[in-house]
Amino acid sequence: MRKPRLILLHGIVAAAAAVALALPAAAAFPDGPIEFVIPFGAGDGADIEGRVLADEMGKVLGVPVVPINKPGAGGAVTYTYVKNAKPDGKTIAWNSTSILTTTNIGNVDFEHSALDHIGQVEYQSMPFAVRADAPWKTMKDFAADCKKSPGKYKIANSTTGSATHLAAIAIASAVGCEVIHLPVGVKRRNATVLSGEADAMVAPLTGAIKLAEAAKIRLLAIPSPKRNPVIPDVPTMKEQGFDAELLLFRGLSVPKGTPKDVKAKLADAMTKAAHSKAFKDLAAKNGFTIETLGVEEFEKVLTAEDRRVKAIMKAAGLYQSEKGKKQ
């Protein structure tokens, strides 16, 4: 009585095996080029760093990792593009603190949590800088003059609601003085200080270090929790008695729902690329600090910095301000 049942089971197994052999095997990730989307224009610090990292990741993964610039709206163009891409690991964003500033100011209608995040690659301070011949030697010197003449001094930043703008707001608030914020763009920021159009600026360290080394600008302070090893002589705001903190980080994000094994391969490639000779040489030259963080640690950074960005924006009346204009 059992024989027909056994024959039937064997028949089902044989049929299933035949179907499996007929289907093409699923290709292992990665099986083709990967888009490495950069939120800012060609030639600036974020672009240069991203291109070197992409090249090194390509060597690890064995496929081209192709840098593509999609600037606009403080990173909103890139993050929207990646958010809407297929979650297969073939589209990744070169993120930064901009993923928090652009979502909180309202350039997009989603939070940073609308994407998955691979990890952090590096961070850098955003020093408060003045021209080398300016009368201020310390942050306390600038604060004293600023308090005497509220609304007189101008601080340049890249754009309204950017990380450099928020750092400048936090610094001015901490020292208790009223300033004029000039959103002059990345390419004009340094020039406005050198020409005297602006009295000071807040810039990523990569955008200021060469001028500081050439003794054309003076770095008075950094709004960081500790001194930066690249500029060890520049004190933090806290060391000078002022409570202001905001870091610029860079890392990788992918569309929500990207498979765990794919994210793990990207994370491994990211870490190896970040510690490659080419990327370490670039870090030493341009002044950023390599500190790779995995998903869990990076999520903690994102949560803490998101809370900080929200607080600064709300105090300055910037929170969701662009979203309000669109309505």
N→C terminal distance: 75 Å
Total number of helices: 12
Mean pLDDT, to the nearest integer, reads: 92
**Main sheet?**
6 strands, mixed
- The outline comes out as globular
Task: Supply Rg.
Answer: 24 Å
Oligomer: single chain
Q: Find the count of extended strands (DSSP E, 2+ residues).
A: 11
Which segments are poorly predicted (pLDDT under 50) over 5 or more consecutive residues? none
Structure description:
The longest helix is centred in the last third of the chain and has 22 residues, at 295-316. The chain starts with a helix and ends with a helix. It has a 6-stranded mixed beta sheet with strand order 2-1-3-10-4-11, sandwiched between helices. Strands 7-6-8-5-9 form a 5-stranded mixed beta sheet. Strand 1 (34-38), helix 2 and strand 2 form a beta-alpha-beta unit. It is built from 12 helices and 11 strands. It is globular. The chain has 327 residues and is an alpha/beta fold.
Key descriptive features of the protein:
single chain; alpha/beta; 18% strand; globular
Annotate the secondary structure layout.
Layout: H1 3-22, E1 34-38, H2 45-61, E2 65-69, H3 76-83, E3 91-96, H4 98-105, E4 115-124, E5 128-131, H5 139-148, E6 154-157, H6 163-175, E7 180-183, H7 186-195, E8 200-202, H8 205-213, E9 217-221, E10 248-255, H9 260-274, H10 277-286, E11 289-293, H11 295-316, H12 321-326
Parallel strand pairs: 1-2, 1-3, 6-7, 6-8
Antiparallel strand pairs: 3-10, 4-10, 4-11, 5-8, 5-9
